[in-house]
Amino acid sequence: MSKTRVVITGLGATTPLGGDVSSTWEGLLAGRSGAQRLTDEWVQNLAVQIAAPAAVEPTEVIERVKARRLDRNAQFAVVAAREAWADSGLEDSGLDKERLGVAVASGIGGLHTTLANYDALLQNPRRVSPLAIPMLMPNSSAAYVSLEFGAKAGVHTPVSACASGNEAIALGLDQIRLGRADVVLAGGTEGAIMALPLAAFGMMQALSKRNDEPEKASRPWDVDRDGFLLGEGAGILVLESYEHAKARGAKIYAELAGAGISADGHDIAQPDPTGSGARRAMERALAEGDLTPADIFHINAHATSTPQGDIAESLAIRQALGKEADHAIATAPKSMIGHLLGAAGAVESIATVLALQNRVSPPTINVDKLDDQIELDVATEQRKLPDGDIAALNNSFGFGGHNAAIAFKTV
Amino acid sequence: MASTEEIRSSLAEIVNEIAGIPVEDVQLDKSFTDDLDVDSLSMVEVVVAAEEKFDVKIPDDEVKNLKTVGDAVAFIERAQNG
């Protein structure tokens, strides 16, 4: 049975580099860091005082009354989804909304709402908002995206920590290939730059403590990396069956060729040091996309800037692609935007799609001295990608041992 | 003691803050649900905000009787005088 072809027909993002896709992409190409030293009062006692906040506050974009009913998490998702929807041209296409699905992931969910309402509860239980549950539930962002556009096919929220965004794209791909939808708004969102996550990730020794040099903190593959930088924002992609897109004359960015999902089965927080789980995810994405390692010219790595994780992924890429890894350019957007947790896979899938479309790999910043255990062709400046039919991988891995790799190809 | 108009005006600000309804639309004869499109969860928020603003108790059982802005203003007036 031949697989339904699925293509990308719309993109939307709000990130530490910009409030939309074009400003984010320009920032990535320019090697700009979104990192900052935080100055909020709540950060003063924390060991880690740096992060990559969203460049544009979502409350400046969303109508006031609507914004107050949305957790920050859902605000980012709605902003990105509106851009993707407008970009796709679906509004006036006569799309049957019963064929429109949603898959919007989050790693942590509506934590702002949870914490604010817990504070209110301690003062007076009647101050707890009647909207607290619909705002804090993990599926809130996906639900609000579906309400925004009247989506009436399945509305889903995969939760797999930092693999969530890619898993949402994989789930969206499945929905179309299973014939359950013609179009799926898929991606991820996260708004977790708050004291609790910074303290908790900090206690795990997962975060960079480079407080005095925030822009140097996220340095995937560099020998002096010391952990990740927490970012926030959202990315949404419009996934559409090729037939549906073709019939309405849609603009097509790239083809979503395949997805590969695996689990490490190793540890709740540490990556499998052999990289075998990550390798299987990439191999499965290639197989599902009818691709071979020879087709891969660009790898958007998970590369969070943690000492162990970056090495395990490098091993995995070498195992998955073999000798063909030599012609695959590796890049790490987290060096600039930080780690957007449940949104990371989605925002970086957008970067991957744009890399294929524009035939350019964005740089990885802060690689002053490449760790000699990293056997990848790392883009430290913009690198041109070859003409012709080429493909790319985007990796995301999450606490819990979740691995999700997505394969895109040029159309 | 606040006048009827003062209570209506303060309540209108609360309804505007929570539901985005223009303050001038929040008149005594208007139904919260039918005219002002205030949904049930927003109505709970309005009630709690009004309790704090006017220093009164509005029991949950009473909320269903507050169909119009005038009903709410009258309840608040009675509660303040009581």
Automatic annotation (TrEMBL), chain A:
Residues annotated as catalytic: 162
CDD domains tied to this protein: KAS_I_II (cd00834)
Protein EC: 2.3.1.179
Domain Ketosynthase family 3 (KS3): 3-410
GO cellular component terms attached to this protein's record: cytosol
Endpoints of the signal sequence: none
Gene3D superfamilies in the cross-refs: 3.40.47.10
Record field: catalytic activity: (9Z)-hexadecenoyl-[ACP] + malonyl-[ACP] + H(+) = 3-oxo-(11Z)-octadecenoyl-[ACP] + holo-[ACP] + CO2; a fatty acyl-[ACP] + malonyl-[ACP] + H(+) = a 3-oxoacyl-[ACP] + holo-[ACP] + CO2
Pfam families referenced in this protein's UniProt entry, alphabetically: ketoacyl-synt (PF00109), Ketoacyl-synt_C (PF02801)
InterPro entries, sorted: 3-oxoacyl-ACP_synth-2, Beta-ketoacyl_synthase, Ketoacyl_synth_C, Ketoacyl_synth_N, PKS_Beta-ketoAc_synthase_dom, Thiolase-like
EC top class named in words: transferase
Domain of life: Bacteria
Pathway: Lipid metabolism; fatty acid biosynthesis
Record keywords, A-Z: Acyltransferase, Fatty acid biosynthesis, Fatty acid metabolism, Lipid biosynthesis, Lipid metabolism, Transferase
NCBIfam families in alphabetical order: fabF, PRK07314.1
Function: Involved in the type II fatty acid elongation cycle. Catalyzes the elongation of a wide range of acyl-ACP by the addition of two carbons from malonyl-ACP to an acyl acceptor. Can efficiently catalyze the conversion of palmitoleoyl-ACP (cis-hexadec-9-enoyl-ACP) to cis-vaccenoyl-ACP (cis-octadec-11-enoyl-ACP), an essential step in the thermal regulation of fatty acid composition.
Similarity comment: Belongs to the thiolase-like superfamily. Beta-ketoacyl-ACP synthases family.
Protein name: 3-oxoacyl-[acyl-carrier-protein] synthase 2
Organism: Kribbella antiqua
Automatic annotation (TrEMBL), chain B:
Posttranslational modification: 4'-phosphopantetheine is transferred from CoA to a specific serine of apo-ACP by AcpS. This modification is essential for activity because fatty acids are bound in thioester linkage to the sulfhydryl of the prosthetic group.
Superkingdom as given in the UniProt entry: Bacteria
Domain EAL positions: 1-82
Residue numbers carrying O-(pantetheine 4'-phosphoryl)serine: 40
Keyword set, alphabetical order: Cytoplasm, Fatty acid biosynthesis, Fatty acid metabolism, Lipid biosynthesis, Lipid metabolism, Phosphopantetheine, Phosphoprotein
Gene3D superfamilies per record: ACP-like
Domain Carrier per the UniProt entry, residue ranges: 2-80
Known pathway: Lipid metabolism; fatty acid biosynthesis
GO molecular function, one term: acyl binding
GO biological process terms on file: lipid A biosynthetic process
CC terms in the record's Gene Ontology section: cytosol; membrane
Locations listed in the record: Cytoplasm
Pfam families associated with the record: PP-binding
Family designation: Belongs to the acyl carrier protein (ACP) family.
Cited function: Carrier of the growing fatty acid chain in fatty acid biosynthesis.
Record-linked NCBIfam families: PRK00982.1-1, PRK00982.1-2, PRK00982.1-4
Classification via HAMAP family: Acyl_carrier
Record protein name field: Acyl carrier protein
Gene it is expressed from: acpP
